[in-house]
Design goal:
Two copies of one chain form a homodimer.
Chain A: E1 19-20, H1 23-32, E2 35-42, E3 45-56, E4 59-65, H2 69-75, E5 79-92, E6 100-111, E7 113-114, H3 118-132, H4 136-139, H5 145-149, E8 151-157, E9 160-166, E10 184-192, E11 196-197, H6 209-212
Antiparallel strand pairs in A: 1-9, 2-3, 2-5, 3-4, 4-8, 5-6, 5-10, 6-9, 7-8
């Protein structure tokens, strides 16, 4: 039996057969993504900002410069929408109408809270750093007191989230199958090219092994 | 001289040296992107939805099923935020604090309007289809009257938009340059794998040449 939607407003209405509310499905997409688009509204005007993030159990963590508008707005405890979309392919049908995308996405609604506990804040920064590259935190200089202070960390509990996935070939109308037109899927992948050393890199330092075959989970 | 910001609320405040309000810079990022994250607020709750789009001159076009919540909300003329983000690389510094991403993004604010003129609507559907794959519209069956009716098209004029770009190596603190830690950039690219034929594809039909070396501009 499927996990039911957590709330009315977090229920996927359009093409509900593509939706899932399973924790494992939601976590897998969040862990594969690199960047979220975070939405908030200020006096009725929505703003959508790309942000990196990390997940620890049932919490998402975001960070930003403490002085930034978005960190200050989010820290006030306003409603937020956190969306991660992974593009998996172009779906090319025989009709313009049935063109689509293969994708995996998560939409999480809620209210972010400013993390004030120092231990949780440091752990969250570790989680965000290691979300981008596992093990990176242990390789680099950790933030000093001034850097921690200059950074706001926000916690968004995954309480109202949905996943939506489209996969597979185009679905054409029966009468279009005979058209003289190619149909299929063009798979898309976000790939990493070979690492480029920083210009002032000390001689003899090689990129960590984790970067030589970088891929998202 | 730089183009000034179009409005107070469309002005990039955080790291303004990364911002541009030049039409050419904004158009180039929009033309390179495949998917936007569109934000709208309903009773104070923001929603951020991934959508494909197209650009024709100074207008963005979006489409959705006429019955969908987002199309119906947008058609009411509510404020919208349209964000496109292209991830170009992981910026790996010697300190956790200076880690970053290389990216190109556009944020456009405004009010979308439902396109009711049939000629503009058809042209917009062509623009959206060809945004994903140039020339695709001419290869496929165009939408019939029922399909056009089932689709809502929305026009968002690019009147309050900004671009923001980060490129180049990490910027470490002087005193971290001597650390025994690799630093540099891992370039990221969205690449297309070889096209996969639909299961019921008629024999002898090959993918169009435009798909065999698919890349974004």
């Amino acid at each position: 039996m499927n996990t039911p939607p957590p709330s009315e407003r977090a229920t996927v209405r359009r093409l509900p057969q593509r939706a899932s509310y399973e924790e494992a499905a939601i976590h897998a997409i969040l862990d594969a993504g690199l960047m979220a688009h975070v939405g908030l509204a200020v006096e009725g005007q929505p703003y959508v900002i790309p942000m990196v993030y990390g997940r620890l159990g049932g919490n998402l963590y975001l960070h930003g410069a403490s002085v930034s508008r978005i960190a200050r707005q989010l820290a006030q405890g306003i409603p937020v929408c956190f969306t991660v979309t992974l593009l998996d392919g172009l779906v090319m049908a025989r009709s313009a109408f049935h063109h689509s995308m293969n994708y995996r996405s998560v939409v999480a609604l809620g209210t972010a809270a400013l993390v004030t506990d120092e231990a949780e804040k440091t752990r969250a920064l570790e989680v965000i750093t290691d979300h981008v590259l596992r093990g990176r935190w242990a390789e680099v200089r950790p933030p000093n007191a001034q850097e921690v202070k200059a950074t706001s960390v926000l916690r968004l509990p995954l309480e109202e989230a949905s996943a939506k996935v489209r996969a597979g070939p185009p679905k054409d109308d029966e009468e279009d199958l005979s058209l003289d037109c190619w149909a299929g899927v063009v798979p898309l992948r976000l790939v990493a090219l070979p690492p480029e050393d920083a210009p002032e890199l000390r001689e003899g330092i090689r990129p960590p092994g984790s970067l030589l075959e970088y891929r998202r989970p």
